[in-house]
Amino acid sequence: MRAALLLALALGAVSAAPVVAETVTASPSVAADTLPANVLVAETASGPHRFTIEIADDPVERSRGLMYREAMDQDAGMLFIFADESERAFWMKNTILPLDIIYADANGTVVSIAKDTTPFSTASIPSDGPTQYVLEVNAGVADEIGLEPGDRLIHRRIAR
Fold first, then answer.
1. How far is CA 74 from CA 14, 54, 58, in A?
2. From the DSSP assignment, how many helices (H) and strands (E) are in the chain?
3. Res 117 pLDDT > 60
4. What is the rounded distance in angstroms from the CA atom of residue 74 to the CA atom of residue 45?
5. Which residues contact 19 (CB under 8 A, 6 or more apart)?
6. pTM exceeds 0.90 for this model
């Protein structure tokens, strides 16, 4: 192959000008309806990050959340789904694991992130604006994947 290229260059059939590859910085958007019900994707500047999640979409499930859990896989989490957008606040009562609490609006856009929350704390951890979805993951995960306000959460139950 190299010999053929050198011959083509010598004959003038191929330009010797350097070829500059296009830089693709944006990852392709994930279609929510193609994801299994227990999968959520966080789209960040570093690319898409996949999580296996549990859903908390009724008052009893949301009230219990991740309380009493002693361990959770690094790529796991819980998605809290509310009927509407509103200011939200969570606490860590009876929650053993330190968590990152990710607040997202009705479109799945990350509004704010409470990082490395304190286990067992009853202090209120508010969102920085109206939210409809809250994703809880292990503490440190948001920084690990480079998640920032303005990034997107993609799941089949998050409206677009």
1. 50, 14, 25
2. 3, 9
3. yes
4. 20
5. none
6. no
